[in-house]
Amino acid sequence: MRVGIPRSLLYYKYLPFWKTFLTRLGAEVETSPLTNKKILSRGVEVAENEYPAKTRDYQQIILSLSEYGIIPVDFAEKNKKLAGYRNRLVHIY
């Protein structure tokens, strides 16, 4: 069996644990490739086809998630400005 671990959030942070655990269970562990333009373009393509709302920025995404009941409205309203800050944070990395 082959198991993929994405290079994101806590999955990758705890990669040593998951890799050891899954390897001892007999699985082959593979991590996702580093993000590049091709991966980002594919993500946008999938999001546009799968996600029912059309969005133009990250603030609008968080608000539309609340409209569809995925996250609470008060959480979206309180955090929408943080969503707009996302690009600045990513480019600092």
Search tags:
single chain, two-stranded parallel sheet, elongated, 62% helix, 93 residues
Per-chain topology:
Blueprint: E1 2-5, H1 9-13, H2 15-24, E2 28-31, H3 37-50, H4 58-67, H5 73-84, H6 86-92
Parallel strand pairs: 1-2
Helix pairs in contact: 4-5
Task: Provide a compact summary of the structure.
With about 90 residues, the protein is mainly alpha-helical.
| Integer-rounded radius of gyration | 17 Å
* Average pLDDT over all residues: 78
Q: In what order do the strands lie side by side in the largest sheet?
A: 1-2
Percent range for β-strand residues: 5-15%
The number of helical runs is 6
Order of helices and strands: EHHEHHHH
The profile of the biggest β sheet is: 2 strands, parallel
Shape: elongated
Helix-residue proportion: 55-70%
Which runs of at least 5 residues are low in confidence (pLDDT < 50)?
none
How many beta-strand runs?
Answer: 2
**Alpha-carbon distance between the two ends:** 34 Å
Estimated structural class: mainly alpha
Explain what you see.
- The chain has 93 residues and is mainly alpha-helical.
- Helices cover 62% and strands 9% of the residues.
- It contains 6 helices and 2 strands.
- A two-stranded parallel ribbon has the order 1-2.
- Helix 4 packs antiparallel against helix 5 (73-84).
- It starts with a strand and ends with a helix.
- The mean pLDDT is 78.
